[in-house]
Amino acid sequence: MASSESLFGNSFTGASTANATAGNDDDLTANNNIDIDVDLGKTLITYRVLVSRREAGAIIGRNGDNITEIRNNNNVKAGVSKVVDGCIDRILTISGMVDNIPDTMVAIARSVTIANAETVKQADEKGTDPTNLITYDFFPLKPLTQRPLPNEPAYANTLFLRLLIPNSQIGTLIGKGGSRIKNIQETYNVKMVASKGFLENSTERLVELQGTEENMRPAIAAISKCLLRDYQGTATTTYYLPSAAMPAYRRRREGRGTGKEVIKKITFPNEYIGALIGKRGSRIQEVRRLSSCAIAIESDSENGVSNHGEREITIIGTRANIDHAVEMLNDYYQRERQRREEMEE
C-alpha cells in the first residue's frame, strides 16, 4: 500500500486559520447543520475524483485543451493520473481555493455529461445501445445513486462526481445519525451516497454526488467547508492508487470469483477495425487476455459489414468482464479516431 499527497493543502491564510478555530466552528461541531459562517473561501483544498479512462479523455479534451481551459478559467491546478495498462480507473486531482472549487467541479462533471450525451446521440443515429459505453456494472465505477436513463430528458442536465474521501472524514460529511448528509441533500436538492466499503488497498471511500449545475455548486461549497473542519484527519490516510491487480473485475478474471457467462454483440465502423485488431492482432489479443473474454470479429466475406458500414464484434464472458472488454475496445477506437482527426487538421 502506498500513500499519496495530502487531500487538503496546508497553505492557509492567517485570517482563515484564525476564523476556523473560532466559536462558529464549535457550534458546527455541536450541531450537525451545514450553515458555516466562517470565511474559508481563500483556504486551499484538494479533491481527488475517480474517473474512467473514457471520462478522463472527455475531461482532458483534444490536445489537453479542455482541462487547460478549466485550469485557466478557475485558477486551479488539475491533472489526471497516468494510464495503467489493464486498469480503466484514473484519478483526477484538483487543487485550489475553496471559492474556485465549485465552478471547477461543475465544469469537469459537465465535460463528462456532454461526452456521454454525444455518445447517446450517436448510438441513437446508429440504432445501437450506448449503455455499456457510458456506465459500469462493477465497483468502484458502478453508480451508487440512481441516474436518469439515457433516453430521459433529465439525462443531459444531470451531473455526477465520484469523490474520494478518507474514511476518517466520512463521519464529518454524514453527521450524527446521518443528519448532515441528509441536510445537504435536502437543502441543495442533490443526491449524495457514500460507499460502505473502502477502495482496494486504501482507506478511502467513494462519495457520489449527483444533481444539476445550479444545485451542485452550493452543495460542493458546503461539502468543502465541512471537510476543512476536519482536515487533520487525513494524516493517516492510505490513498487509492489505480492498479491492474486491484479492481474487482481483475479478481474475477484471475479465478477468485464466478459469474454466469453471457453473449454481447457490439459494432464499430469498418474503417477502424484494423486499429482495434492491432499489428499482428496485438490489441485484440490484449483485450482477450486482460478481460478473459472470447472475442470474435466478423469478416467482410461473412457479411460482417452492415448497411451503415459497421462490423459486428461478438464478446462472450461474465458481465463484468464484458464491460471491461467493451471499455478497452472503445478506448482504442476513441484514440484512433482522435489521431485521424488531428492528422486531417
Automatic annotation (TrEMBL):
<feature type="domain" description="K Homology">
    <location>
        <begin position="157"/>
        <end position="228"/>
    </location>
</feature>
<keyword id="KW-0677">Repeat</keyword>
<dbReference type="InterPro" id="IPR036612">
    <property type="entry name" value="KH_dom_type_1_sf"/>
</dbReference>
<dbReference type="Pfam" id="PF00013">
    <property type="entry name" value="KH_1"/>
</dbReference>
<feature type="domain" description="K Homology">
    <location>
        <begin position="260"/>
        <end position="334"/>
    </location>
</feature>
<feature type="domain" description="K Homology">
    <location>
        <begin position="43"/>
        <end position="113"/>
    </location>
</feature>
<dbReference type="InterPro" id="IPR004087">
    <property type="entry name" value="KH_dom"/>
</dbReference>
<dbReference type="InterPro" id="IPR004088">
    <property type="entry name" value="KH_dom_type_1"/>
</dbReference>
<keyword id="KW-0694">RNA-binding</keyword>
<protein>
    <recommendedName>
        <fullName>K Homology domain-containing protein</fullName>
    </recommendedName>
</protein>
<dbReference type="GO" id="GO:0003723">
    <property type="term" value="F:RNA binding"/>
</dbReference>
